[in-house]
Amino acid sequence: MTRSEHDVLVIGGGAAGLTLALELAGHRHVTLLRPAGDDIGASRWAQGGIAAVLDPRDAVDDHVRDTLIAGDGLCDERAVRFTVTHSTAAIEWLVAMGVPFTPDTSPQAPYPFHLTREGGHGTRRIIHAADATGRALVQTLLARVTDDPRIRLLDDRQALELVADDRGACRGALCLTAEGGHELLVARDVVLATGGASGLFRHTTSPTPTCGEGMAMAARLGATLANLEFQQFHPTCLYDPEGEAFLISEAVRGEGGRLRDIHGRAFMADYDARAELAPRDIVARAIHAEMQRTRATHVLLDITHLPAERIAHHFPTILAHCRARGLDITREPIPVVPAAHYSCGGIATDLDGASDVPHLYAIGEVACTGLHGANRMASNSLLECLVFARATAAALRRTDDTARREPLVPSWQDTSPMPDQQADKGLMALREIMSEAAGIVRSDAGLAAGSAAVAALEETYAPLRQDRPPSVAATRLQQALSLAALMLEAARQRRESRGLHFNRDCPAHLPGPARPSRSRLIRRP
C-alpha cells in the first residue's frame, strides 16, 4: 500500500466539490478526487436550473415560505433562511465564473436572465442554461478547476473508505489506483461531495446513479445520518424500457405541460389545487395512483399545445434526446414514470458543512443540512450545493489544523478481492428489494419484509468480502447494504406519513412538531 500526504481532500467533483475547491484554493492546499470521466454525480444531469431570489419582485421571505411548505413541517428554518439569503450572491458568483445562463432579451424583463417556475414555487425564480443547467454548470466549473494550478486534481483514483485516527477524527481515505493497487491519502480535513443514494432503487433519473457511498463511509466512522426515509422520486422520467434513464425536467410542467393518463385525461386537478405545479411528492403519488387505476406502466406528459418554437427554445436537449428515440414531443405526448431522483437525508451537518466526526465535512446531496425537510422543492438542490460549498470553504479557511495524528490503516488477510460479477449481482438484488419495500407508497409489512431481505443479502455476501482487499464493486455493495438497512429502519420508525414518506398503514401526520430522524451504524463485532 502506498501513501501520500494532503491538506484538504475533497472527494467528489460535481457542483459542490468543484465550487468548494475553487473557493478554497489559495487559502489551503486542495486535492480534488474526481475520477476521469466521472459523471456519477447528479449535478451534470440537472436540467431545470437553480432557485434563487433574483427578480426584484421576489423576496427572501417568499422563497423561504415556499421551501417550508414543500418540506412539510420538517425543514430547519434556520438552514432554509441561511440558504435563501445567500442565493443571490451564489448566482452572481456563477455568472462571474462564466456559466452560460439563458438570457431574457424581452423589453419588460425584470432580470437579465430568463427565469422559469417549477413545482412548489410561488413565482418565477429558476435561473437556467436552456434545459441543461447542470451540464453547463459542471463544464464551466471543471474548466476553471483544471486551469487552476493551486488545485491538485486526481483523476486516477477511486475512494473506497475513510480512515480515522485513534481518537475517531477523520484523517483521509483509502483509494484504489488505476493500476489496481491501494493508496492511503492522509489529510488534515476531508470533504465529502459524493452525491445521494438513488442508485439503491431499480429506476432512477440518472444513467449512473450513486448508492450513498459517501453516507455509508461517514457512518462507518460514527457520523450521524438524518432523514434517510425521505427519498424523492421525480415524477417524470422518460419511460423507455429498452433505453437508459433520462429526466424530463420539471420546468416542462412549469411552462405549461399537462399530465394525462394513458387515455388522455388530465388528472392532476383531482389531487391538488396546484395541479402540475404541486410539490413533487404529491405529483409522484398522483402518477403512481393513476398508473394503478388504469393498470398502465406509465402516464403521459403533454406539451403539444405549446408552440413548437417555444419548445425548441426552452427544451432543446429534451427535444433532441426524445427525437433520437423516435419521439417528437411537439406532436405527441411524452411517456413518463416516477423514478428515484434525490436523497433528502444524509450526513447531518451544521451551517459550515461540518459533521459530528472531527475533520469530516459533507456538502451537496450527501449531506442533510435541514434545507429540504421531508420533501425537496424543485431547483433548491443546486442552490444548496453552491451555498454550502462556499460556506464550508469559508470555515476551512478559518481553520488550519497543524497537529496531525496517524490514521489507523486497514488490513486484510486474503489477497484476492471479491469477484465484481458477484458484487454486481448482489447490488441488482438489493435494488429490487428497495424498489418493492421503500418506493413511493410503503406499508408496515413491506418495510419489514425489505429489512429481512436486506439482512439475508448481507448474510449471503459477508463471507465473500471478509478479509479480502476492497474493490470498487465489493465496497459499493457493502456500503449499499449498510445504507439500505438504515433507510428501511428509519422508515419503519416514522409512524406517520409526511412529505416523501407515505405509509398506507399510518397515512396521517403525528400531532405536534415534526422531528427529524437520526440513524447510526451499529458496528457488528
From TrEMBL:
<feature type="region of interest" description="Disordered">
    <location>
        <begin position="499"/>
        <end position="525"/>
    </location>
</feature>
<dbReference type="InterPro" id="IPR027477">
    <property type="entry name" value="Succ_DH/fumarate_Rdtase_cat_sf"/>
</dbReference>
<dbReference type="InterPro" id="IPR036188">
    <property type="entry name" value="FAD/NAD-bd_sf"/>
</dbReference>
<protein>
    <recommendedName>
        <fullName>L-aspartate oxidase</fullName>
        <ecNumber>1.4.3.16</ecNumber>
    </recommendedName>
</protein>
<dbReference type="Pfam" id="PF02910">
    <property type="entry name" value="Succ_DH_flav_C"/>
</dbReference>
<keyword id="KW-0285">Flavoprotein</keyword>
<dbReference type="InterPro" id="IPR005288">
    <property type="entry name" value="NadB"/>
</dbReference>
<keyword id="KW-0274">FAD</keyword>
<dbReference type="GO" id="GO:0008734">
    <property type="term" value="F:L-aspartate oxidase activity"/>
</dbReference>
<dbReference type="InterPro" id="IPR015939">
    <property type="entry name" value="Fum_Rdtase/Succ_DH_flav-like_C"/>
</dbReference>
<comment type="pathway">
    <text>Cofactor biosynthesis; NAD(+) biosynthesis; iminoaspartate from L-aspartate (oxidase route): step 1/1.</text>
</comment>
<dbReference type="InterPro" id="IPR037099">
    <property type="entry name" value="Fum_R/Succ_DH_flav-like_C_sf"/>
</dbReference>
<dbReference type="Pfam" id="PF00890">
    <property type="entry name" value="FAD_binding_2"/>
</dbReference>
<comment type="function">
    <text>Catalyzes the oxidation of L-aspartate to iminoaspartate.</text>
</comment>
<keyword id="KW-0560">Oxidoreductase</keyword>
<feature type="domain" description="FAD-dependent oxidoreductase 2 FAD-binding">
    <location>
        <begin position="7"/>
        <end position="382"/>
    </location>
</feature>
<feature type="domain" description="Fumarate reductase/succinate dehydrogenase flavoprotein-like C-terminal">
    <location>
        <begin position="429"/>
        <end position="508"/>
    </location>
</feature>
<keyword id="KW-0662">Pyridine nucleotide biosynthesis</keyword>
<dbReference type="InterPro" id="IPR003953">
    <property type="entry name" value="FAD-dep_OxRdtase_2_FAD-bd"/>
</dbReference>
<comment type="similarity">
    <text>Belongs to the FAD-dependent oxidoreductase 2 family. NadB subfamily.</text>
</comment>
